Fold:
Amino acid sequence: MTENRRLTTIKKMRKLKIILEMIKFEHTVFALPFAVMSAFIASDGFPPLPKLGWILVAMVGARSCAMAFNRLADAEIDGINPRTAMRAIPAGLITKGAVWSFTIISAGLLVFAAWRLNPLAFALSPVALAVVMGYSYTKRFTAFSHFWLGLALSISPVGAWIAIQGNFALPPIILCCVVLLWTAGFDIIYACQDVSFDRKHGLHSIPAKIGIRWALWLSSALHVIAVLLLLGIPYLVELGLFYYIGVGIVVLIFIYEHAIVKPTDLSRVNLAFFTLNGVISLVLMALSIADILLL
Structure:
């Protein structure tokens, strides 16, 4: 019996590992730092540890639920796209039932964490789930699916603010707009890889709609607006030198990101999408927290 339990545990751990790889769990780094940054701003210092812990649980639950559900919704599409055919579900590495279980558990984590935080967070948790899961179907009917993805990630700073303050306020809404524009911008870059596939199969994206060259220009414009909004946040809350250094680094990364992706050369899209944008969120969070705690 003990050996059977051990084998069962090993199988479950293997399934979990496959799912975490499938949903790119490490890419939680995109939105999570903005939630942490918002929590520090809302607290005007170090947030209470229990609240910070439940914010992290809520963020991980929401992002894991969204990505797992996305893989379920897109399983058939992924199976016929050469770029995604080896993802876990179409490749037969994991069953849909296992992914559904993971999705439901992740959604439950978000709702439970929100309940532990405060009544407003708990009341809004179904709305958050609807937004993050709804994204998976948007590319079937609108080229503005990139902005829905941006909205899904952008609720993280608002949620963290609500978790600390129990209300809405202008600073997290501005930060929400920053994350929305930033995400839509880099998702447009990522979608350039699938222009031919999307057009052939009736899927919608901005690159498929207006072409790669104009899509990259639009991505650049969105990132410029995001930077301008970042520069406006210190007029609403006390942020200073370290924060501005962080914004400066973000500008430099944006410049590099857009320099390495060209309409005739998409070979470095993954670097622009995954690595550089992870650095952006981490740098801005770290220097904003340094500003709050040290200055």
